[in-house]
Amino acid sequence: MDFNAQPIGIYIRVVAIISLLLGLNDAARLLGVGLGDVSPMAAMGMTAFVYLAIFALARLFAAVGLWIKASWGAVLLVGSTAAELALYLLGNPDIRMSAFGFAVRLVLLVSIIIIFVLSIRLERARATD
Fold it and tell me: Which of the four pLDDT bands, split at 50, 70 and 90, describes residue 43?
């Protein structure tokens, strides 16, 4: 996929910033920001803590990959976001998010799928020229 086209490049950078902010928010939750003296591991439970750590790291790495316009960043973001939303929708009690958090993750997933579609259309247009 060619993420170096000008319109797609700007769109990818916006998605990368959103992914970075969401990953940093998850990292802050892992560190216990806003919990006071309570350990985040005790507040969430071990499984929820591990899930959150995996998704936070995946989102942060995906943001870096998207920023440098590497296709692995988009794949990592789609995989981690789809897995997190699937676990949440299937009722896993260890995946906790607000309605706003769900909406942001859904927008991220749709945005990266739009990037894939635009990239494929641009490749086809170049091939026919």
Answer: confident
* Predicted confidence (pLDDT) per residue in 51-100, tens digit: 999 999 999 999 999 999 888 998 999 999 999 999 999 999 989 889 99
76 near 61, Cβ under 8 Å?
yes
Question: HEC states along the chain?
Answer: CCCCCHHHHHHHHHHHHHHHHHHHHHHHHHHCCCCCCCCHHHHHCHHHHHHHHHHHHHHHHHHHHHHCCCHHHHHHHHHHHHHHHHHHHCCCCCCCCCHHHHHHHHHHHHHHHHHHHHHHHHHHHHHHC
Q: Phi, psi at residue 92, to the nearest 5°?
A: -65, 120
Tokens standing for residue 30: 């892992």
Report the C-alpha dihedral over residues 64, 115, 77, 71, rounded to 10 degrees: -60
Centroid of chain to Cα 53: 13
pLDDT at 76: 94
Are the C-beta atoms of 60 and 20 separated by less than 8 Å? yes
